[in-house]
Amino acid sequence: MKHIKKDKCDCRIIHEEKVNEARQRALDDLVTENLCETFKALGDMSRLKVLWALEYQEMCVCDLAALLGITESAVSHQLRLLRTLRLVKNRREGTILYYRLADDHVSQLVRIALEHIQEPGVKN
Amino acid sequence: MKHIKKDKCDCRIIHEEKVNEARQRALDDLVTENLCETFKALGDMSRLKVLWALEYQEMCVCDLAALLGITESAVSHQLRLLRTLRLVKNRREGTILYYRLADDHVSQLVRIALEHIQEPGVKN
DNA sequence: TGCATATCTGAACACATACTCATATATATA
DNA sequence: TATATATATGAGTATGTGTTCAGATATGCA
Lengths: 124, 124
Description:
Two copies of one chain form a homodimer.
Chain A: H1 16-25, H2 29-42, H3 45-56, E1 59-60, H4 61-68, H5 72-84, E2 88-93, E3 96-101, H6 105-118
Helix pairs in contact in A: 4-5
Chain B binds a DNA duplex through residues 6, 12, 14, 40, 44, 46, 60-62, 70-80, 92, 94-97.
């Protein structure tokens, strides 16, 4: 069952079939990058707080800045990223821009991640 | 309805009720940090590839290294992080450690994120 | 015990990124 | 048009992070 294979190049492979299988099933690199960007967007305290707040109600930039305790500029930078990834949308009312979640994927992602971190730790 | 409030301090708040509401509903900081760490773990090409591979079959460190095209050391570092966050588990067979997903939360998270990025882009 | 293999760990470095500051843009109103 | 407000943008900077390299641990076997 085991193909012990040691080449001179440092790509040492123990289970060749497994690696080949994994290669075939691998996601397209572009898809993986998009996935990566999305998770990266969620992996930041400021953006996470923004998204959590927007899950309940739409809010404008300066309110979010007050909520997070950072400058409006910083919030704006983050919102641009979230907009680019289609995680949030906005609507204008005069000079004020109200941001809201783009769809319920964010809610679902956060809910599942919450489940995960609250799950009791098990030995291996 | 609008409380225009401009203080000398730069925490300008337009909708005070919204900010207060958001503050009350805000997640505990420690919980947010854990959430953040979890998403951060998913927001990396190497770790994402590892997790995607492990969703189908358990694999050992050097096979994962071969699959990703990085050193075994790099994979090991990443696996330690994933283990710490209880995203993967391992079992030992001789000198070989086989890694697998800890539960199906990762699968769910990736599936939802995939849905999100594949959703057709809509104007605002 | 001694050697080989598989994995882990710490240090160092190159690169990414989140923030602030200064400034620009957009909308509303006088 | 001129002014004020809300937001966006670009540059600069300090911190974070993923990688490799060198060396340490751990298990198996002669």
